[in-house]
Design brief:
By secondary structure, the chain is of the alpha/beta class. The protein is built from 6 helices and 5 strands. The structure holds adenosine-5'-diphosphate.
Length: about 170
């Protein structure tokens, strides 16, 4: 049987419990998941791609991966190209609300047009994290709000360090 390899692409700036929840849900569906961190300098990220990849690598061992290999890599350019280059057969995306669906549907159809062999797989967010996004976490944290329980402890620590660096 051939290896079922998926990519889970995103900005992960930073990784949240919502992302981790999607990864946990994916491990039973695939043999290998590449968490693919998008290198998009135009977005003015809080963390560099290198920092984001390092943080994800530190957090992943806490996940019960049940035999699924979890790999972290970064990429630039088209998600469909990266997926093909990695010989992945699926792109995993999380859906939090109808508002995600509209954008995700367009992306999935475009990616299918670009690479018909690659299927986009949508997983529903856990209810308790369905309002969590990296952007909201950054906004709240930057204004002094508590984000514990919404991001892994290590990520919260790195955000605190990053904030004190910029002060
Ligand atoms: P992008 O910049 O591509 O939206 P993100 O890092 O924000 O990347 O998200 C990557 C993927 O994770 C997307 O499919 C997004 O819908 C999903 N995701 C983000 N936050 C959550 C959450 N709280 N619950 C479930 N899925 C999520």
């Amino acid at each position: 049987m051939s290896l079922r390899r998926a990519i889970f692409p995103g900005s992960f700036d930073p990784l949240t419990m919502g992302h981790l929840d999607i990864i946990e849900r994916s491990v039973d569906l695939f043999d290998e998941i590449i968490i693919a961190v998008l290198n998009n300098p135009d977005k003015h990220p809080m963390f560099s791609v290198k920092e984001r990849c390092e943080m994800i690598k530190e957090v992943l061992p806490a996940i019960e991966s049940r035999g699924c290999a979890l790999i972290v890599d970064d990429f630039s350019g088209l998600t469909a190209d990266f997926a093909k280059q990695q010989r992945a057969t699926a792109i995993v995306r999380g859906i939090r609300a109808i508002s995600d669906y509209e954008y995700e549907l367009r992306m999935a159809l475009m990616n299918r047009r670009l690479e018909p062999e690659i299927e986009t797989v949508f997983l529903m967010a856990a209810e308790e994290y369905s309002y969590v996004s990296s952007n909201l976490i950054k906004q709240v944290f930057t204004l002094g709000g508590r984000v514990e329980g919404l991001v892994p402890e290590l990520i919260e620590k790195r955000m605190r360090e990053k904030l004190s660096e910029s002060e």
